[in-house]
Amino acid sequence: MEEPTHIREIFEPIINSKKIKYEVLDKLFFSNLLFDVEEVSLFFSVESILKQFYNPNIIEIVNSCENEYKFFLSSELLNLAAHYRHYFWSRFEITSNIFFFYASKINSRAKKLNFHYRDKYYEKRFNNLEYNNLNNNILTNLNLANMLSDYLPHIYVVDTGDIEPSNNKAPDLMNFIFSNNLIDMQEIIYDKTNIITLKSDNSKLIDKDNIYQYLLRSSKSKNNTSISMNLFTTIFSIVGSTS
Question: Is 162 helix (H, G, I), strand (E, B) or coil?
Fold first, then answer.
Protein backbone atom coordinates (compact mmCIF):
# COMPACT_ATOMS: atom_id res chain seq x y z
CA MET A 1 0.00 0.00 0.00
CA GLU A 2 1.42 3.38 -1.02
CA GLU A 3 1.92 6.02 1.64
CA PRO A 4 -0.35 9.10 1.39
CA THR A 5 1.27 11.86 -0.65
CA HIS A 6 -1.11 14.62 0.41
CA ILE A 7 -1.64 15.79 3.99
CA ARG A 8 -5.43 15.59 3.56
CA GLU A 9 -5.07 11.84 2.97
CA ILE A 10 -3.70 11.60 6.52
CA PHE A 11 -5.87 14.08 8.39
CA GLU A 12 -9.20 13.65 6.63
CA PRO A 13 -9.72 9.98 7.65
CA ILE A 14 -8.87 10.88 11.26
CA ILE A 15 -11.48 13.64 11.40
CA ASN A 16 -14.03 11.60 9.46
CA SER A 17 -13.66 8.72 11.92
CA LYS A 18 -15.11 11.08 14.55
CA LYS A 19 -18.23 11.53 12.42
CA ILE A 20 -20.12 8.56 13.79
CA LYS A 21 -22.31 6.97 11.12
CA TYR A 22 -25.99 7.78 11.38
CA GLU A 23 -26.96 4.09 11.61
CA VAL A 24 -24.59 3.73 14.60
CA LEU A 25 -26.04 6.85 16.22
CA ASP A 26 -29.53 5.46 15.63
CA LYS A 27 -28.69 2.41 17.77
CA LEU A 28 -27.44 4.69 20.53
CA PHE A 29 -30.17 7.30 20.53
CA PHE A 30 -33.40 5.61 19.48
CA SER A 31 -33.21 3.39 22.54
CA ASN A 32 -32.88 6.51 24.70
CA LEU A 33 -36.20 7.98 23.63
CA LEU A 34 -35.25 11.47 22.45
CA PHE A 35 -38.60 12.03 20.83
CA ASP A 36 -39.88 14.30 23.61
CA VAL A 37 -36.74 16.49 23.55
CA GLU A 38 -36.70 19.75 21.58
CA GLU A 39 -33.10 20.88 22.13
CA VAL A 40 -29.79 19.27 23.09
CA SER A 41 -26.29 20.48 23.94
CA LEU A 42 -23.37 18.61 22.36
CA PHE A 43 -19.88 18.98 23.85
CA PHE A 44 -16.87 17.75 21.84
CA SER A 45 -13.46 17.08 23.36
CA VAL A 46 -10.91 18.58 20.96
CA GLU A 47 -8.28 16.41 22.65
CA SER A 48 -10.19 13.25 21.68
CA ILE A 49 -10.72 14.48 18.12
CA LEU A 50 -7.05 15.32 17.52
CA LYS A 51 -5.23 12.69 19.59
CA GLN A 52 -4.29 10.59 16.54
CA PHE A 53 -2.50 13.59 15.01
CA TYR A 54 0.25 13.05 17.57
CA ASN A 55 1.26 9.67 16.22
CA PRO A 56 5.09 9.66 15.85
CA ASN A 57 4.69 7.82 12.55
CA ILE A 58 3.02 10.79 10.86
CA ILE A 59 4.65 13.78 12.56
CA GLU A 60 7.55 13.78 10.04
CA ILE A 61 5.07 14.05 7.17
CA VAL A 62 3.17 16.76 9.02
CA ASN A 63 6.33 18.82 9.51
CA SER A 64 7.27 18.53 5.84
CA CYS A 65 3.83 19.86 4.79
CA GLU A 66 3.51 22.76 7.20
CA ASN A 67 1.76 25.20 4.85
CA GLU A 68 -0.24 22.60 2.96
CA TYR A 69 -2.76 22.11 5.74
CA LYS A 70 -2.65 25.61 7.21
CA PHE A 71 -6.41 26.12 7.56
CA PHE A 72 -7.60 22.57 7.01
CA LEU A 73 -8.52 21.81 10.62
CA SER A 74 -10.84 24.76 11.24
CA SER A 75 -13.06 23.85 8.31
CA GLU A 76 -13.10 20.17 9.30
CA LEU A 77 -14.18 20.96 12.86
CA LEU A 78 -17.10 22.99 11.55
CA ASN A 79 -17.97 20.16 9.14
CA LEU A 80 -18.01 17.87 12.16
CA ALA A 81 -20.51 20.18 13.85
CA ALA A 82 -22.66 20.13 10.70
CA HIS A 83 -22.64 16.32 10.67
CA TYR A 84 -24.13 16.03 14.15
CA ARG A 85 -26.48 19.01 13.80
CA HIS A 86 -27.97 17.45 10.68
CA TYR A 87 -28.35 14.10 12.42
CA PHE A 88 -30.38 15.42 15.35
CA TRP A 89 -32.57 17.57 13.12
CA SER A 90 -33.15 14.97 10.38
CA ARG A 91 -33.88 12.13 12.84
CA PHE A 92 -35.70 13.88 15.68
CA GLU A 93 -36.26 17.52 14.59
CA ILE A 94 -34.14 18.52 17.58
CA THR A 95 -32.08 21.73 17.52
CA SER A 96 -28.54 21.58 18.89
CA ASN A 97 -26.02 23.76 20.70
CA ILE A 98 -22.51 22.62 19.83
CA PHE A 99 -19.37 23.24 21.91
CA PHE A 100 -15.75 22.33 21.12
CA PHE A 101 -13.72 22.52 24.34
CA TYR A 102 -9.95 22.43 24.92
CA ALA A 103 -7.23 23.78 27.22
CA SER A 104 -4.40 25.80 25.67
CA LYS A 105 -2.21 25.77 28.80
CA ILE A 106 -0.82 23.31 31.35
CA ASN A 107 -2.99 22.73 34.42
CA SER A 108 -0.51 24.08 36.97
CA ARG A 109 -2.84 23.42 39.91
CA ALA A 110 -3.04 19.71 39.14
CA LYS A 111 0.73 19.61 38.53
CA LYS A 112 1.36 20.96 42.03
CA LEU A 113 -0.72 18.14 43.50
CA ASN A 114 0.81 15.48 41.24
CA PHE A 115 4.11 16.35 39.55
CA HIS A 116 3.61 13.64 36.93
CA TYR A 117 0.03 14.62 36.12
CA ARG A 118 -0.54 14.02 32.36
CA ASP A 119 3.20 13.97 31.67
CA LYS A 120 2.92 12.19 28.31
CA TYR A 121 0.11 14.45 27.12
CA TYR A 122 1.85 17.70 28.08
CA GLU A 123 5.20 16.53 26.68
CA LYS A 124 3.85 16.45 23.13
CA ARG A 125 1.64 19.53 23.44
CA PHE A 126 4.07 21.91 25.13
CA ASN A 127 7.63 20.60 25.53
CA ASN A 128 8.63 18.47 22.54
CA LEU A 129 9.88 20.73 19.73
CA GLU A 130 9.22 17.99 17.18
CA TYR A 131 5.50 18.71 17.60
CA ASN A 132 5.89 22.49 17.61
CA ASN A 133 4.60 23.04 14.05
CA LEU A 134 1.59 20.85 14.66
CA ASN A 135 0.74 22.54 17.98
CA ASN A 136 1.03 26.03 16.52
CA ASN A 137 -1.14 25.06 13.57
CA ILE A 138 -3.79 23.53 15.81
CA LEU A 139 -4.00 26.66 17.98
CA THR A 140 -4.19 28.86 14.86
CA ASN A 141 -7.05 26.77 13.51
CA LEU A 142 -8.91 26.70 16.83
CA ASN A 143 -8.69 30.49 16.99
CA LEU A 144 -9.94 30.70 13.41
CA ALA A 145 -12.78 28.28 14.14
CA ASN A 146 -13.69 30.44 17.13
CA MET A 147 -13.91 33.55 14.92
CA LEU A 148 -15.94 31.72 12.27
CA SER A 149 -18.31 30.35 14.90
CA ASP A 150 -19.47 33.91 15.59
CA TYR A 151 -21.29 33.71 12.25
CA LEU A 152 -22.74 30.24 12.84
CA PRO A 153 -25.72 29.90 15.19
CA HIS A 154 -25.16 28.03 18.45
CA ILE A 155 -21.64 26.77 17.67
CA TYR A 156 -18.91 27.64 20.16
CA VAL A 157 -15.15 26.98 20.46
CA VAL A 158 -14.15 27.23 24.12
CA ASP A 159 -10.60 27.56 25.46
CA THR A 160 -10.50 26.82 29.21
CA GLY A 161 -6.91 28.08 29.53
CA ASP A 162 -4.99 26.37 32.34
CA ILE A 163 -8.12 24.75 33.78
CA GLU A 164 -8.95 21.16 32.85
CA PRO A 165 -11.67 21.39 30.18
CA SER A 166 -15.13 21.01 31.66
CA ASN A 167 -18.64 21.52 30.46
CA ASN A 168 -21.13 24.13 31.57
CA LYS A 169 -24.21 22.02 31.10
CA ALA A 170 -27.68 23.46 30.68
CA PRO A 171 -29.74 21.90 33.50
CA ASP A 172 -32.96 22.07 31.47
CA LEU A 173 -31.46 20.41 28.37
CA MET A 174 -30.18 16.95 27.48
CA ASN A 175 -26.37 17.05 27.35
CA PHE A 176 -24.10 14.71 25.38
CA ILE A 177 -20.30 14.83 25.79
CA PHE A 178 -18.38 13.31 22.87
CA SER A 179 -15.07 12.21 24.35
CA ASN A 180 -12.68 9.30 24.83
CA ASN A 181 -11.01 11.00 27.79
CA LEU A 182 -11.46 9.22 31.12
CA ILE A 183 -11.41 12.53 32.97
CA ASP A 184 -14.61 13.57 31.17
CA MET A 185 -16.38 10.48 32.49
CA GLN A 186 -16.82 12.31 35.79
CA GLU A 187 -19.43 14.53 34.14
CA ILE A 188 -21.80 11.56 34.20
CA ILE A 189 -22.84 12.44 37.75
CA TYR A 190 -24.90 15.40 36.50
CA ASP A 191 -28.54 15.04 35.52
CA LYS A 192 -29.41 14.68 31.83
CA THR A 193 -25.75 14.15 30.96
CA ASN A 194 -24.36 11.24 28.94
CA ILE A 195 -21.01 10.42 27.34
CA ILE A 196 -20.59 9.30 23.71
CA THR A 197 -17.23 7.71 22.92
CA LEU A 198 -15.73 8.78 19.60
CA LYS A 199 -14.75 5.34 18.31
CA SER A 200 -16.40 5.15 14.90
CA ASP A 201 -18.56 2.00 14.58
CA ASN A 202 -17.58 0.97 18.12
CA SER A 203 -18.84 4.16 19.75
CA LYS A 204 -20.78 3.73 22.98
CA LEU A 205 -23.35 5.75 24.87
CA ILE A 206 -22.42 5.82 28.56
CA ASP A 207 -24.85 6.85 31.27
CA LYS A 208 -25.32 6.35 34.99
CA ASP A 209 -26.64 2.84 34.40
CA ASN A 210 -23.60 1.46 32.57
CA ILE A 211 -20.66 3.67 33.61
CA TYR A 212 -19.18 1.11 36.03
CA GLN A 213 -19.64 -1.67 33.50
CA TYR A 214 -17.81 0.42 30.89
CA LEU A 215 -14.90 1.32 33.17
CA LEU A 216 -14.53 -2.30 34.34
CA ARG A 217 -14.88 -3.83 30.87
CA SER A 218 -11.22 -4.94 30.81
CA SER A 219 -11.05 -5.85 34.47
CA LYS A 220 -11.26 -9.34 35.96
CA SER A 221 -13.16 -7.85 38.89
CA LYS A 222 -16.89 -8.34 39.10
CA ASN A 223 -18.96 -5.33 38.16
CA ASN A 224 -20.54 -3.85 41.27
CA THR A 225 -23.33 -1.63 39.94
CA SER A 226 -24.72 -1.12 43.46
CA ILE A 227 -22.14 1.58 44.19
CA SER A 228 -23.88 4.94 44.52
CA MET A 229 -23.21 7.53 41.82
CA ASN A 230 -22.72 10.01 44.67
CA LEU A 231 -19.40 8.24 45.33
CA PHE A 232 -18.29 8.13 41.71
CA THR A 233 -15.94 11.13 41.69
CA THR A 234 -14.42 9.99 45.01
CA ILE A 235 -13.75 6.52 43.63
CA PHE A 236 -12.42 8.03 40.42
CA SER A 237 -10.01 10.24 42.39
CA ILE A 238 -8.72 7.28 44.43
CA VAL A 239 -8.17 5.10 41.35
CA GLY A 240 -6.68 8.04 39.46
CA SER A 241 -6.10 8.88 35.82
CA THR A 242 -2.91 10.56 34.63
CA SER A 243 -3.55 10.11 30.90
Answer: coil
